[in-house]
Amino acid sequence: MNVYDSGRMIDVLASLGFSVTEDPAQADLAILNTCHIREKAEQKVFSDLGRLREHKENRKSNQQEMIIAVAGCVAQGEGAEIMRQAPYVNMVFGPQTYHRLPEMLAQALRSVDSHKKQGRGVIDIEFPLEPKFDSLPETQRSQVSAFLSVQEGCDKFCTFCVVPYTRGAEFSRPVVDVIKEARHLVNLGAKEITLLGQNVNAYHGAAIHGQGEWGLGRLIRELAEIEGLKRLRYTTSHPLDMDQELIEAHRDVPQLMPFLHLPVQSGSDRILEAMNRKHTTKYYKEVIDQLRQACPQIALSSDFIVGFPGEADADFQETLTLIECVGYAQAYSFKYSIRPGTPGALMDNQVDETVKASRLQVLQDLINRQQLAFNESIVGTVQSVLLDRRGKREGQFMGRSPYMQSVTVFAEEPSLGEIVNVFIEEAHPNSLAGHLCNSDVMITAIPSVESKGQRVY
Ligand code: 5AD
Ligand code: SF4
Q1: Nearest CA, atom 9, ligand 1
Q2: pTM, whole model, 2 decimals?
Q3: Which uninterrupted H or E stretch holds 348?
Q4: What is the mean pLDDT of the segment spanning 438-446?
Q5: Going by CATH, does the domain composed of 2-124 fall within 3.60.150.10?
Q6: Which residue from 65, 71, 81 is spatially nearest to 119, judged by alpha carbons?
Q7: Phi, psi torsion values for 80, nearest 5 degrees
Q8: Which tops the pLDDT comparison, 46 or 200?
Q9: Residue 115 reports pLDDT greater than 60
Q10: Quick one: average pLDDT of 203-209?
Q11: Which of 36, 76, 154, 242 has the most ligand 2 atoms within 8 A of CB, as the residue to mutate?
Q12: What is the pLDDT of residue 457?
């Protein structure tokens, strides 16, 4: 979502004559677009700000300005604190106000001019009434694989999570707006679109003809009608919002890739309840069964938190059991991080950091084994790969398989942006390698993860 938001900020600023530079020393304006989800991400903001300050001072000694802005969820949550700790920051704005960048920038520049030595900061961390998306210019950036925000915010209030406070209440963009943006992205060269939302499958946007609302499954069917759009994905989902229409879209819509990131967080019902996830492990497994019935080759990914307050060894063992039972193609895992203002922060049964670290290691070892087994199960098959970038070596191209695996291909001259057939020869922990294969016949493998001697895919 932050990558998408940063892109949209670039679009807004392009209309004011700004362009992107990779070199901070050249920057008239530096924006840190920040994430507040865990403490580590937040700490990074302050160390990055320190580095930007040096560039700002160097520029000052050459009579050049550098406006420093902090955007995103840390700005939303800690705006006043940032201004206090880092008074050289000129602007602070949250994820819902970046369409107002032109006014904010003008204000920041006026304040720099009138104070010469140190500008007074501009803060904009409201949740504005005017919808942000209506005020953004169309992008001119072309990407083979593009992101498209369809939903923002969250009403689920998991007790560990800061998102409902920083991104605000759930909001879905109207279907017409989403389709318009998707068509535009395809015209600019996108072959794949990933629909984004903090809780994307809670999508309920105003229907095309102004009657009622559409869920994500219906939206996906409509997007699949766009000529030239070859692949669709969506992220991130909540198990409770996997409705029948969406599950059926996995059965019926060939453009919808057979890969789903569906976070479960924990395999212990006791901990799921304390997390206010509103579902049990049984419910989660039922959803996965239904998805596998609808789309037998679907591969799964999840997020896991270890060391949530009150998590005992037995709870953690249940998480490992769930992982073995489901079989993942990949997953993200984190130590629980206290977020001020969330209910979890007030719980008095916090888990020791060393216990968290050792649980994380055990969990990640298991996930890594599953990921490698999944990658190995693809060797010897032909996969369609969307080539989206050049590799480091001569003649090397990179792309993604339908299952989100990174694939390296050696080839004379395939064009970027093409979907090619690749015979997969090698599996590594985080990637595959193979060669171009002219055969039109796709060997569609049903990936398998062997676990405890039992085939779970
Ligand atoms: N501590 C650790 N991980 C967290 N996540 C969200 N909040 C926290 C927290 N306080 C993880 C969840 C979520 C992912 C985006 O980040 O697993 O799905
Ligand atoms: Fe955070 Fe996701 Fe829970 Fe919403 S559903 S509160 S975004 S973890």
Answers
A1: 337
A2: 0.93
A3: none
A4: 54
A5: no
A6: 65
A7: -65, -40
A8: 200
A9: no
A10: 94
A11: 154
A12: 31
